[in-house]
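WARN no homologs supplied; continuing
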Amino acid sequence: MNNLRLLFRKLKLQNFNVIIAFSGWPDANQVATYSAKYIIDNLKMEKIKEIPLDGFYNFSLNRPVVNIEQGVIKEYKLPKNELYKLNNDLLVLVGEEPHTNWFTYVDAFLQILSKANQICLLGSLIDKIPHTVETLISGVATTTKLINKMKENGIQPVNYVGPSSIHSLFLHECAKRDILALSIWAHTQEYINGVDFKAAHKLLKVVNNMLNLNIDFSKVKIEENKLQKWLNEMMNKDKSFSEFINQLESEYKFSREKPGYIM
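OK structure emitted
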């Protein structure tokens, strides 16, 4: 992390915002990491650093990927944590949630990001919510002012007690250091195989509004339409699937409470 500190001194960042997304537990249907990568590509952000992995990952849990052709090793891929920047006012970190030494990881980053205007962590979770209703976005923040801004942008504050992701540790430590931070979660479905583009589209819109970005949503909208078309066709072809969705709709309509999730 010392090299990262030196890099930040050279960048001389001022009035900058930060977006963080991790794959793994806090990335149901890849909504969080897809959204972060979409922002990187859409805003043509510059890659500035790959974060060292030593001490934070258990490769027996998430093994590196090897590419072998006719007995010869061609490629060996480790999990990546990559940092991107847009001018000097936006940073995006996208990678894999650390397996261990969370306090060391979070402390190292917050020492570097202490002057950030705002840190926004993206997440997604499986929920009993059908794809036929508007995607639910819920969130947590370090200040009442941020909570109010979240409400203005359609983000529902969370009530929750239970196991957490690294997002909660980031927010807890940010609050102790008076760093503005929020964690925004898109609620997605267990029956979607792959990226939930509808949830990603909604999450991107919320992030765009919260951080005053200038994201073009046309590409994700195309993918969302394809997904919705496929799901509608499934409902027309498969009676049991259609009945399952109808049941979800009824439960969602009549018994929906404030969201609780793994933060």
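The radius of gyration is 19 Å.
OK
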